[in-house]
Write a structure and sequence with these properties.
Helices cover about 45% and strands about 15% of the residues. The protein is of the alpha/beta class. It folds into 2 domains: about 90 residues, Arc Repressor Mutant, subunit A, CATH 1.10.10.10; about 180 residues, Rossmann fold (3-Layer(aba) Sandwich), CATH 3.40.50.150. A 7-stranded mixed β-sheet has the order 5-4-3-6-7-9-8, sandwiched between helices. It has a two-stranded antiparallel sheet with strand order 1-2. Helix 15 links the parallel strand 6 and strand 7. It is globular. It binds S-adenosylmethionine. The site of S-adenosylmethionine (SAM) has 16 residues, from helix 12.
Amino acid sequence: MTTVDPAPPPPMRLRELVFGAACAAAVRAAARLGVADALEETPMSVDDLAAAVKAQPRTLRRLLRALSCQGVFMEHPDGTFAHTEMSRLLREDDPNSLRYIALWCTEPWTWNVWPKLDEAVRSGRNVFEDVYDREFFEYLNTEAPESAYVFNRAMTTSSEQSARDVANLLDLRNVSSVADIGGGQGQVVASLLEKHPKMHGTLLDLPGVVENADPRLRSGGSLADRVRIVAGDCREDIPVQADVYIIKNILEWDDESTRRALANVRKAARPGARVVVIENLVDDTPSMKFTTSMDLLLLLNVGGAKHTQKSMVERLTDAGLVIGEIRPVNAYLHAFECTIPS
Ligand SMILES: C[S@@+](CC[C@H](N)C(=O)[O-])C[C@H]1O[C@@H](n2cnc3c(N)ncnc32)[C@H](O)[C@@H]1O
């Protein structure tokens, strides 16, 4: 039977750390095989599971053994496997599913850029463009449709989970229009419009992303008559007038892109308009290992970073925004309430 060692001694811990790729690959393999979806609420034998996911029992057992050591699935003394809290999160139908986040963090391109982390640390810039010869989002939307799909599903999952928190946080009384810049497939806009039935909204994101916008926002959808969908690049132009602009999990790319996007918001917005920037802060998170790892991945793919409160404030101030309250949205996200000066 496989058990989890909660606190191994340092030499063992370091050996385990350098095999982090094996852990990530095992989680990815289980997600792609659909093992968590196939495993029912009662423990199952490896043979039954292997038949359900069309794999070899002997190799599936080895995969499950490795994952059980990490607390993803658990093995019973009779050799059957059962769900744990973590393995349930790999199910597609779990209300808090992390299936697409797990796939996103382990997409094929990630395995090509991690070995160049030392180069990125030395140069201070992304390595993605050296490896793939084009910008990350351009690659994603033109060359890697499967990865783009996984990315958009991952963003949608995390947006669905945070959109309600954003809608609860923002005081939108007397606000008639809201715009989400880089709003992905539009979960935040949709939540806000559902909560405020008189409000209008705009979703701006790259063309390949908005063409798969949330069905509520698309033609025939329940919110379609109150929404405008703009396909564009916010570093080039933000042709949108709104009372409130939301910029959530966007300003974590390179500084020049942040500077251009914020300058375009300033150009588009009238004096007094609100700009709400929402980010995970690397210096204020209950999930330091995840956030610092994501920070490194952002360095590799877009030359970006997860911000500290100070580095975010500096960029917003440089853009000429007047910063008001900085508040937690939930355990992971912070909102910076800003206004466009007169
Ligand atoms: C990390 S996701 C965040 C999505 C959404 N705001 C959320 O919080 O779920 C980054 C988003 O920025 C979009 N994006 C990237 N480059 C962009 C650009 N130049 N102009 C507009 N959107 C862009 C991506 O397509 C993606 O939807």
